Predict the structure.
Amino acid sequence: MHVAVLGAGSLGTLFAAKLRAAGVPVTLIGRPGGHLQAIEREGIRIHQTDETVETVAVEVTADHTAVVDADWLLLAVKSYDTASAMSDVADHLDGTTVLTVQNGLGNAETIAEFVPPERVLVGTTAHGASILRAGHVHHAGAGETVIGRYDGDNGPEVDDIASTLTEAGIETVVTDTPRDALWEKVLVNVAINAATALARVPNGHLVGYPAGERLVERAIEEALAVARADGRSVGDEVLETAKTVARETAPNRSSMLQDVEAGSQTEIESLNGAIVDRGEAMGIETPVNRTLADLVRLAETLAED
């Protein structure tokens, strides 16, 4: 089996390293630059929370044609890059299954514009990671990964992919309702990412202070109404799930906070922004999510000035 990982950000780098450390041939495809150069010279350095460091040699390239030999493709680019990334590789995918483990809504639909829907797998993961410096990734936390076919029955291929990930230390289960699982993850991210990015606080502050808890509750209340109107089966327990995630990852700085601090584009449009857009289309008011989205958009303008 050969796996191509498209996207050399924190999660793509982490997953590529863990798969390769388990003996799976992997090619990590990313943008040219210092990160790929450092990996090519010295391998990926995985920094664990217990301060141990593991070094894994991984094949890297900026050549998108490298996907041609892959049995399956793991897509780990930012949500705003999904269309351009798929456009780059689509002509080189011959029956290849594409698994997205990206944040936010709309990624699977975009992928399905480039490959048949039955070749798209929807995935969510509770693993957290951040790039410390070129070639170095911090594995900030682990948790369950859930995957399932976007359109059609799962079958042996999906089971094989789940087994491969699990054997690499990425515990993965297969679900027949991946869209529900995706929405649950989106609701958690909607509650945590924008608020922490704007307040410049780690995740734990959202459950350690009344102001944080109010934001979590109101953002999820709105998003839950949108999810249900969209036909998704998401229970009220997602609120407690979000608080538990914030509590268990208390010292972590969300990916959106990292983006805002770095002056980078965020994934706000596929998270709170997507909740607002879908709510508007269904006549559901989402004032808290609209405010959070607009404030993050405003913060992004600093990078443009």
